[in-house]
Amino acid sequence: MAKVVVKNVYKKYEPSRGGITAVSDFNLSIEDKEFLVLLGPSGCGKTTTLRMIAGLEDITAGEIYIGDKLVNDVQPKDRDIAMVFQNYALYPHMSVFDNMAFGLKLRKTPKDEIKKRVHEAARILEIEHLLDRKPKALSGGQRQRVALGRAIVREPKVFLMDEPLSNLDAKLRGQMRVELTKLHQRLQTTIVYVTHDQVEAMTMGTRIVCMRLGFIQQVDNPQVMYDYPANVYVAGFIGTPQMNFADATIKDDGKNIYINVGNSSIKLPESRAKNIIGQGYDGKEVIMGIRPEALHDEQVYIDSLPDSIVNADVEVVEMLGPEALVYCVIEGNNMITRFKPNTKARHGDVIKVALDTERLHIFDKDTEKALFRD
Amino acid sequence: MLTPLKKQLSKIVPCNFGVIDQKGNILMTSDENIDYISSLVNDMLLSSVFPMETSSYVISRIKPYRTNIFYFYLEKKVKNHLLVLQLLSAMTENFIKSYYDKFDRAHFLRSVIQQEVTESNMKKKMISYKITNERKRIVLKIKTIEKTNHSIETILNNLFSDHKFDYVIELDNCDIVYIMEVDEDAEEIAITAAKNLIATIEQELLIPVVVGIGKLVYDIASLADSYESASLACEIGGIFESEKNIFTYSKLGIGVFISKLNKEELAQYLNMIIDVELFTKLDEEIIRTIQKFFENNLNISETARKMYLHRNTLVYRIDKVLKQTGLDVRNFDDALLFKTAYMVKSYMEKLNDNT
Ligand SMILES: Nc1ncnc2c1ncn2[C@@H]1O[C@H](COP(=O)(O)OP(=O)(O)OP(=O)(O)O)[C@@H](O)[C@H]1O
Ligand SMILES: [Mg+2]
Fold first, then answer.
1. CA geometry: angle at A39 spanning A35 and A45, to 5°?
2. Helices (DSSP H) in chain A: which residue ranges?
3. pTM
4. Which among A44, A83, A160, A216 is the best mutation to test ligand 1's pocket, defined by most ligand atoms within 8 Å of the CB?
5. Ligand 1 surroundings by CB, under 6 angstroms
6. Residue B222 gets which letter from DSSP?
7. Does B3-88 carry CATH code 3.40.50?
8. What is the third-level CATH fold of B261-353?
9. What are the counts of helices (DSSP H) followed by strands (DSSP E) for chain A?
10. CATH topology of domain B133-252
């Protein structure tokens, strides 16, 4: 249980090691008991950041605090952390109990203490009934829990996890996501969790740090990050299917703000327009973004959103059961919409689509930053 | 060393028992209260006839191995205690024997790897240890920056305890090596083992680890060779692929040749294949991108997906490399040149670091 503070941290690998700046000016205060997710594509510096917090990798500049202690010069084993990786292996000839106890024995923890901690961890992981079993007699999910148990018995202040679920099949991964969330609630400890999978990040994180090329792009709780992405990169990275983007121009007539896309003109509602009006955006080129579920083909929306109707050429309709994904072209831009499954849209149709302008995103064309955030 | 045996016996023997060595050290005992043992030891050392009996104990002598003698004692609280004693002594003898055999074999293999065994000696020992040349083996070298007081050996021995013919050995130079017997897919198996052992050591001990995987060898004498290739893999792999933690000898490729060149030769070679000034001007974003592009086997879609880049952005960057260096890394030959140049440059930097 502890706060983790990362202050102005840089990691530049030596020129002979490729010379890449893997992490740049990283500033983050991770609250006690938080489930913080580091999210981003391959090579964005997630693992490097995590290993620097662990002390397994030197930092080039900056400071790292765990609890209130500056740990820059503290050995990993003295940082009060535990790691969980994608790969793990259990000791085949040892019982589940001994598998979890082994690390403690290596560190000469007293027997009674070991017993207490292993039983406590087993209780939390709901594997008490398996303590006498050998790994061979366990299912994949149970083994994964034993591996987690090894970290839990250390009773660390912070858990550092690097894509622990990425080797599992889709079904087990789904189960373990739920398990990890429960585990976090029971442990009441700080967890820093690395993943490139935005679904994992959205479902498990209390906050998400979205990274790109070693830089933090945005830090927010999952819903805020989804609803108010700070830039085009985050907007596109979070959410499947992706947010739709289109080049557009702003028109400010002094009273209202219009977004012009192709031949269509969409009037922004009061709530969104008020931040832009009279700010000199008239004529400015922007990137408009809209999520698939913010596009509607139902008559009620067409009627209630008269200021934001566009035509869509339907190309493909994918019926998914609870919803239909409709691939279409709107004002020359390929877009995906998420309609109700009873949609009448079919390949070749030209349909009317209403944009939910309360959920429209506008990004500066040059900086790619969001123009307004509530 | 006798803990597993004790665990086993405790389940079946309903009274006190234990093993004592010649000097009276207690090697194993079922009973934490050991006050009575010293008198037992006195009786035992005076006796020349075994099994011997005291008022409440029977004792047998076991000689599992060369000159070492051990004593097994059993409380006379079971029926047919003499028969039980004999059975238990036999079990213990076998246990100790196999323990020492494994220990001795490891000792022998250690000398083989350090090239301290003569050919004739090797043959003799192999026969006496029943080690054959008929199996394929591969040596893994485990490198850490810290001394760990045998913790790593303990971890490895337990992690691979189901691999009966594998050995974990610490060499005089503190390197830890893991000799693996392998069948098909030797390298894949070695890589999996390496991944698992790295994760386990890093998780249990919180120290960074790298592993070198040596070449596959077909006889015992070549283990030294496999070890040397594993060391080379660590050394050269560490220069050219520093972001990895597993280095395989057979995948070192041109790195082996590059690392044999001296500074002048390197500079000459670099100048021959590329305009050094232009090459040095490539920015980090480009270098990163091309690295990932190579990692993904020159597959544009896959690289774009993994890096979360638009395909066109990736193509644009590749074109930029073409414009700046004349190399089109989409083509195998140019990719090879780019990679070589990059490796030569890294190695030159490395040499500069060291001076
Ligand atoms: N030990 C190292 N030596 C040199 N460069 C490294 C090393 N480790 C990582 N890098 C480089 O630093 C950058 C960030 O790597 P990192 O492993 O932190 O990314 P990641 O976000 O964890 O990616 P992935 O999703 O692929 O695991 C990459 O460009 C990588 O090539
Ligand atoms: Mg990573």
1. 115
2. 46-54, 96-106, 111-125, 140-152, 170-187, 198-204, 222-227, 232-237, 270-273, 299-304
3. 0.85
4. A44
5. A 13, 17-18, 20, 22, 40, 42-48, 196; B 242-243, 288, 291
6. G
7. no
8. Arc Repressor Mutant, subunit A (1.10.10)
9. 10, 20
10. Alpha-Beta Plaits (3.30.70)
Instruction: Give the DSSP letter of residue B76.
Output: S
Q: How far apart are CA B338 and CA B317, in angstroms?
A: 14
Q: Where are the domains of chain B?
A: 3-88, 133-252, 261-353
Per CB-CB distance under 8 Å, the chain B contacts of A106 are: 151, 154-155, 204-205
**ipTM at complex level:** 0.87
CA nearest ligand 1 atom 30, residue:
A43
Whether chain A has a CB inside 8 Å of the CB on B206: the answer is yes
d(CA B303, ligand 1 centre) in Å:
15
Instruction: Say if the Cβ atoms of B243 and A17 lie within 8 Å.
Output: yes
Residue A92 is encoded by which pair of tokens? 């085949």
Model pLDDT for residues A301-335, shown as the tens digit of each residue: 999 999 999 999 999 999 999 999 999 999 999 99
- CB B275, CB B326: distance < 8 Å: yes
Residue B243 has what DSSP assignment?
T
Q: Are B100 and B65 in contact (CB under 8 A)?
A: yes
Residue A129 is encoded by which pair of tokens? 């009934």
Q: What is the pLDDT of residues B218-258, one digit of tens each?
A: 999 899 999 999 999 998 888 888 888 999 999 988 888 89
CB contact under 8 A, A89 and B207: no
For residue B239, the one-letter residue type is: I
> For a substitution probing ligand 1, which of A24, A37, A48, A51 has the most ligand atoms within 8 Å of its CB?
A48
User: A63 near A56, Cβ under 8 Å?
Assistant: no
Spatial CA neighbour of B232 closest among B252, B218, B217: B252
At residue A204's C-alpha, the angle toward residues A199 and A210, to 5°, is 65
Of B203, B206, B242, the CB nearest to A17: B242
Q: What share of chain A is helix, strand, coil (3-state, %, to 5)?
A: 30, 35, 35
CA pair distance B278, B271, nearest whole angstrom: 11
